[in-house]
Amino acid sequence: MKDNSIKKVLVIGSGPIVIGQAAEFDYAGVQACRALKEEGIEVVLVNSNPATIMTDEHIADKVYIEPLTVDILTKIIKKERPDGLIASLGGQTGLNLACELNDAGVLEKYSVKVLGTNISSIKMAEDREMFKNLMNEIGEPIPDSEIVSSYDEALEFANRIGFPIIIRPAFTLGGAGGGIAYNEKEYEEIVHSGLTQSPINQVLVEKSIAGFKEVEYEVMRDSNDTCIIICNMENIDPIGIHTGDSFVVAPSQTLTNNEYQMLRTSAIKIIRALKIEGGCNVQFALDTKSNQYYVIEVNPRVSRSSALASKATGYPIAKITTKIAIGYNLHEIKNSVTKKTVAAFEPALDYVVVKIPKWPFDKFATGDRILGTKMKATGEVMAIGRTFCSSFKKAITSLEAKNTGLLHHKFENMSLEQLLEELHIQDDRRIFRLSEALSRNVDVDELNKITKIDKWFINKIKDITDVERELEIKPLNYELYKKAKEYGFLDSEICAYAKVDEQTLENFNLEASFRIVDTCAGEFSASTPYFYSTYSEECELDEYKKETTDKKGNTLKKENVVVLGSGPIRIGQGIEFDYCSVHASWALNENGYESVMINSNPETLSTDFDVATRLYFEPMNIENVMNIIKKENPKGVMVQFGGQTAINLAPKLAQRGVKILGTSLESIDAVEDRKVFEKLLKELKIPQPKGRGVHSAQEALETTRELGYPVLVRPSYVIGGRGMQVVYNDDELLTYINQALQFSSEHPVLIDQYIEGLEVELDAVSDGKDILVPGICEHIERAGVHSGDSMSIYPSRNISRKNEKKLVKYARLIARKLNIKGLMNIQFIIKDDVVYVIEVNPRASRTVPIMSKVTGVPMVKMAINAALGKSIRSFGFGVGLYRKTNLVCVKMPVFSFQKLNRIDPALAPEMKSTGEVLGVDTNFKKALLKSFIAAGYKFGGRKQRVLVSLNDHYKKPALKIVKRMFSQGFFIMATWGTHKFLEQNGIPSKMIEKFMIDKLQKRMKNGRLSFILNTPTLGKNSQTSGFQIRTIAEMYGVPCFTSIDTARAYLRAYRTFDKKVNLEVDTITNYRKKKFLGMF
Amino acid sequence: MATLILEDSTVMYAKSFGAQGDVFGEIVFNTSMAGYQEIITDPSYAGQVIVMTYPEIGNYGVNNDDFESLNPALHALVVKEYCKNESHYKSKITLGDYLKERNVIGIEGVDTRSLTKKIREAGTMSCFITTRDLSDEEIKQKIEETKNYKPNPDIVFDVTTKESYIKGKGNPIKLAFIDYGAKYGIVKSLVKRGCEVKVYPANIRAHSILKEDFDAVFLSNGPGDPKDCKNEIATIQELIGKIPIFGICLGYQLLAIVSGAKTYKLKYGHRGGNHPVINLETNKVMMSSQNHGYAVDVESLSEIMTPTYKNLNDDTLEGFKIDSLKVHAVQFHPEAAPGPDDAAVIFDEWIELMKKYQKVRA
Is residue A265 within 8 Å of residue A198, measured between CB atoms? Predict the structure, then answer.
């Protein structure tokens, strides 16, 4: 039963989105908060990530957007005095923090009870040695392994066991710092990196069982010792690839009942021994030739896998974990799907779920694509189908790649020999190589031997490629068409393979039908508003809709509006769009509409069936979306909240006669079309940087003569990772142009004047007449760094009243001209009192959640109203620029380079960050310091050396900063050119040779290098020493600034820290209440 | 084109993957996601047509270790997607070939979810399946025949052992085991825990058991309506009170009838591996494997009967005991096969009781 002594609970979020810790914890956190509030418990929430829904004021009672450190959390605990905290909902971050708070005696001091799984259980599961001992005690097999804290110990183990060996650092996220070593050289490298990254300098070295099947169990236990399995999942990729980077299917497909139950029994035995209370994840390796299995890992918390399992089954793991934490037992909790049965049951699926990771290699062309024990995916897609093939096919479609099929991924011209050779490579493209090999009739057994993927999956994939071939060869008739649809093929694919037009397909008159996810395989009636599509089966949608009639039989049919979600999380399209989609859906409901959500991302809150009126878990492809629209017949579609994914669908929807609500398609097009947009700004007399497209080197040179250096160059057609760049002279220009033209000579290269001024950005809500600008943000880094990667400050500090007015005026002019109905984001550059518009996005931007929270303006809600034709004046926030309060915040990007090898961490016009944190205060300096702390920068300790290496453009501008470093007590080392320059300017530094990378590496390893300032030279070449230094710095977690502005901000924060200021904490609501007292 | 006809006139078309032929039966669904081999060889399904709600069936073929009986007694298997390319190191034969070998009809390509919902709404129905094409005329005729189809009341006779035999010879606890269509798993579980099990056909008379020196009698699972088992009930009536009796599934239902309770037909039965049952004494919950179409009416229990387990999904009775008569029985399957092993502890508890009774007797 519920523990009534708990009145107030602290929920710790998981911080910024990084690889291995994404939106799934926002989903979990929101479910937890709602579950607590439902019970009348006051919720105090802390998270440094402002893009989350959990940090909304209506989700928790008190929302702290503060750094997630023991120090800060102690202050919050002291202030709020919660009765308990739940450790298992905030990912690894939350879990580690709870342990640290416990160890520091904070929980005891303020009598905060750990609810749910307790600290000793967490430690038992997380500490490799303790876990190993426990497994030995209860007789559960684990692979031969040893905990080591030095390379010597590790080597001893290797000599005994032999390679390959898996290295897993203790207490790190997504296996950061780990890997598989096949020889001593690799072993040394990985062990060192693992030791450095583990907060307790421990790694587990383990006999590799690569090639075993990897199977996961999502388990739940309550204090009454009831244990249930929510879902089991089988990795299509065998052991050796991180589960976050694996193709996963639920439920397991190749396990007999005996094997399934053997592992189930083991999982339950383990969580009983650990005394888990709540959700937990157990990973197993199962031999493919015997009953031998090993326990690989236990996550004593809600995880990415549990988000997937929740979506795959309809069982809300985070919610039930929360209920268990406050004292309920599983049999006392209702099954919210059937409403008749209880939460103590094991979901039965009557469909197949496939998850595929989304990797960032399209963005990072130089990145190391090899997959191993270190997770590299930024996000994932999930698909539901009645069969494995249809589910798998839908999941591939959900990746939103241009090619939605399995074949024609540039392997078709490869020789068979080479193809088979490359099949040994475990990277993100292996499934496409496998498909290509299958289409060339390579034997399934042989492929199984090479890839270690179970023959069952290979055969199923072969079934798909066979249909693809059949479509190409045989004449298309109804039977073949039906078969292809049942296999999950898109009409667009069928048209292409069978060389027919869409009309031919339409004549077949075959419609998609929709089925319900009900947790019980149809055994009990359920009215979950959670659907997926299938073919040649009954459509349950009508039946579902029938149920929304009143007692007299009158249909209570409301009009509905479709909200397009944003698909998998990727760099540049993160959780912020999920925030917008979810709010859009809520706002529609408030306006009396049914909201219909379409999305393919299992990590998000938008795909919780509790959010929208109806949820469709489907690929964000025009055909899948149209299938839903045909059934739903909505008033229109909201495309402005789902990032580029949704915007890309807009023209296709409009073409098919679907109404786009809010800003019109013409307006969306107008800003995307360079020429139209240029003309538009000219008409409005708004300054913009000059530029033009060129087709040859000669033309490029002529253009730059006219514009003057520096210029910003970028291809008009994006070629794999080749993005924008700032160039300063003819040499750099020609290098870039020649390379770009080599890739594609038809598409021009765009050259723009590069104005190195103050970059400013604003979000606005517009109803076509009025606009409301909640606030103006100014970037810390000068123009040239992608806005998503810049630090930015609200309210702006360096913009004159006059220019502020100009910004708002321009925004209003543009909004009216384009008749913007909804959200809009504009980026400006201010230089010499001229305000230039550089970009307009007629949709929700990355900063909408932040601006909504720091100003209190419900931007998405207002945007929905505007899109529905209402005026924004009625909201009472006025129009024009919204008033400031005394709240100051600094947004700081967070990167995941530690997970991705061979990627240059240098800031550039191309976005690289995966997440962000917000430092909030009423004092700018404190907010700045908080933002650095929240992003994981460490302050304190002895000041050490800093390495300074500047390119020619930045030598002069950096002088003041280097002086400051010196005066703040850092010892300066500089590369040759920089050293000379500093010497000339009277700043002492020690010269180091650029190539002495080994020595530098040693310094970094021993913590004798505080940070690095390195402005990169041109040429994204992984051979440059700068690149090497930057990547090594990432590896050892040494801050490396590539923009002098970031370095300046860091020094400033350091000064604040040195002054020993007391960082206070407060809720976002209270910060906002503090009246604006003007600049400080 | 194979055809499936329900007594409510539903007609569905499918593809055959098992034996050819025509068959009538009672159509039921099972929600287990793994364990089709155990399910199709469970004799309790005698005369029934099983719809698997999980769509991909046949994935790991059929092996030598997971049979629950040697003669699959079901009439047909209905699936969404049959897997022709099975993959498992233990697999000896594909599911399709196995069904062909055992002359059992198997059909695929059926909208099994819709079929399940029909059964859920209308209750268990009679059905007809043929692997051939039917004319409209034939369909009409078969619908009528399906409506009039009555399951065989002597179904237990079809699946019980013809001869008695002993398993676990020499083990310390001596059990008389009446086979109404027993799953191997039950006998295996008992032998593993130290029982010498003498398996008798269902028509064994009480005196034949009583004259031998058994520690207890064990009543197995089995197919059909317990009320049809007149002779079996009579036998138990003679045994009860004279010797400790344990029962599972049909054995439990028969014990209930003998003890004065009533049974009734569930609308669509419990068949699957995810049924939560709560122990009414300890308040502990476990996941159980179930396969039954009838239940004991909890309202009808006689005074001497103590309810021991309850199903959390629909509050139906799942177990009872009579301490005075040394009777213990559960509706669900502690031997699992297929399904979770949570309830295996019941065998442990019963073995302890058997030992205790043994001591008392000594």
Answer: no
Instruction: Find the residue in B nearest to A454 (Cα).
Output: B87
**pLDDT of A800 higher than 80:** yes
Q: Which fold has domain A939-1038?
A: Rossmann fold (3.40.50)
Which residue out of B26, B229, B249, B318 is catalytically annotated? Answer: B249
Among candidate residues A586, A576, A559, A660, the one with its CA nearest the CA of residue A861: A586
pLDDT tens per residue across span A335-365: 888 888 899 999 999 999 999 999 999 888 7
The mean pLDDT value for A226-244 works out to: 95
Give one DSSP letter per residue of B341-357, joined into a string: STTHHHHHHHHHHHHHH
Determine the Cα–Cα distance for residues A459 and A718; give it in Å rounded to an integer: 36
Q: Do A345 and B312 touch (CB under 8 A)?
A: yes
A248-301, pLDDT tens digit by residue? 999 999 999 999 999 999 999 999 999 999 999 999 999 999 999 999 999 999
pLDDT at residue A1075 in the model: 66
C-alpha dihedral, B72 to B78 to B81 to B84, nearest 10°: 30
| pLDDT tens-digit map of A133-148 | 999 999 999 998 888 9
Contact yes or no for A538 and B276 at CB 8 A: no
Measured at the CA of B96, the angle between CA B90 and CA B102, to 5 degrees, comes to 95
Check if the beta carbon of residue B189 is closer than 8 Å to that of residue B121. Answer: no
Residue of A258, A341, A342, A464 to mutate, interface with B, max B Cβ within 10 Å: A258
CATH fold group of domain B156-361: Rossmann fold (3.40.50)
Tokens of residue A780, six digits:
């810390």
* Pick from B120, B284, B339: CB nearest A225: B284
Q: 3.40.50.2000, 3.30.1490.20, 3.40.50.2300, 3.10.129.10: which CATH number matches A690-753?
A: 3.30.1490.20
Q: Does the distance separating the beta carbons of B114 and A226 come in below 8 Å?
A: no
Residue A348's DSSP bridge partners are: A520
Superfamily (CATH H level) for A144-208: ATP-grasp fold, A domain (3.30.1490.20)
Q: What is the pLDDT of residue A720?
A: 36
Q: A157 with A163: CB under 8 angstroms?
A: no
The model carries a pTM of: 0.95
Question: In the structure, what pLDDT confidence band is assigned to residue B341 with cuts at 50, 70 and 90?
Answer: very high
What residue spans define the domains of chain A?
Answer: 8-123, 144-208, 354-508, 513-661, 690-753, 758-884, 939-1038
Under a CB-based contact definition with an 8 Å cutoff, are residues A736 and A727 in contact? Answer: yes
Residues 496-535 of A with CB under 8 A from B: 515, 520-525
The verdict on domain A513-661 having CATH code 3.40.50.20 is yes
Architecture of domain B2-151: 3-Layer(bba) Sandwich (3.50)
Per-residue confidence (pLDDT) for residue A903, from 0 to 100: 81
Residue B328 falls in the annotated catalytic set:
no
Q: Write down the CATH number for the domain with range A758-884.
A: 3.30.470.20
Chain A positions in Cβ-Cβ contact with residue B314 (cut-off 8 Å): 340-341
Question: Token digits for A757?
Answer: 């001024």
Look up the CATH architecture of domain A354-508: Orthogonal Bundle (1.10)
Does B2-151 match B156-361 in CATH topology? no
Residue B127 annotated to the active site: no
Please tell me the least confidently modeled range out of A581-595, A631-645, A732-746, A818-832.
Answer: A732-746
pLDDT at A173: 61
- Residue A257 near chain B (CB below 8 Å): yes
Q: In whole angstroms, how far apart are CA B71 and each of B41, B248, B336?
A: 6, 20, 19
Two domains, one topology: A513-661 and A939-1038? yes
When pLDDT is cut at 50, 70 and 90, the band that residue A693 belongs to is confident
Q: Where are the beta strands (DSSP E) in B69-210?
A: 76-78, 81-82, 105-108, 125-130, 165-167, 173-178, 195-200
